[in-house]
Design a protein that fits this description.
The complex is a heterodimer of chains A (110) and B (103). With 110 residues, chain A is an alpha+beta fold. Chain A contains 5 helices and 4 strands. Chain A is 55% helix and 15% strand. The longest helix of chain A has 16 residues. Classes of the chains: A alpha+beta (110), B alpha+beta (103).
Chain lengths: 110, 103
């Protein structure tokens, strides 16, 4: 499968997904760590892709949504932003609302 | 030209900020001494008025596209309108400590 198709499949099959360096349990970058922590604090299920374990996605993710840096957080298949935006949305409460809604909508569909 | 100067000049020219701070945070990371790889930008501009955060960040990513393509490894962005900046009263979050993965 083409790498952009693989990314599309990942963001569409996970209502909330983070592309990060390392894992939520063992993040390898401070920005990834903070964004994953914010998602954890929301108390909703989320998927993750460890970019350090998948060089092809690491290389190509920036051109998928025309976003040059990591981490990247996707909700309902849409890029919501990187670390700074994720944290600001967490602080305003929007992150939790959006993530919860995405997870609920996915459950209702299945 | 130094990366820090280039970032400052480009943002000044394109976004006419009323406040702009470009901090080189590379020393906080797993990179050689005197690197210019990790930056934090706090920028206040009227051009952010009515724009969602993601649109503001995209605007900056576009202005700094060539720097992001070659050289900048991390760019922490705090993008505010004049009103938001006043509300924050200068309180911008610190960037996170390095976890070693910046290769």
């Amino acid at each position: 499968m083409d790498v952009l198709d693989r990314i599309r499949e990942q963001v569409e099959s996970n209502p909330v997904l983070i592309y990060m360096k390392g894992t939520p349990q063992m993040p390898m970058c401070g920005f990834s760590s903070r964004a994953a922590e914010a998602l954890k604090q929301c108390g909703v299920e989320f998927g993750y892709v460890n970019l350090l374990a998948d060089p092809e996605i690491f290389q190509n993710l920036p051109r998928y949504a025309d976003w040059p840096t990591f981490p990247q957080v996707y909700i309902k298949g849409e890029l919501i932003g990187g670390c700074d935006i994720t944290l600001e949305m967490f602080e305003s409460g929007d992150l939790k609302t959006m993530a919860q809604e995405a997870v609920d909508a996915a459950k209702a569909k299945s | 030209m130094q990366m820090q100067t280039r970032i400052t000049e480009k943002l000044q020219a394109e976004l006419h900020p009323t406040h702009l701070e470009v901090v080189n945070e590379s020393h906080m990371h797993n990179v050689p001494a005197n690197s210019e790889s990790h930056f934090k930008v706090t920028i206040v501009s009227d051009q952010f008025e009515g724009k969602m955060l993601i649109a503001r960040h995209r605007l900056i990513n576009k202005v700094l596209a060539s720097e992001l393509d070659g050289g900048i490894h991390a760019l922490a962005l705090h993008t505010l309108t004049a009103t938001e900046w006043q509300k924050k009263a200068g309180h911008i979050a610190d960037s996170p400590p390095c976890h070693g993965g910046s290769k």
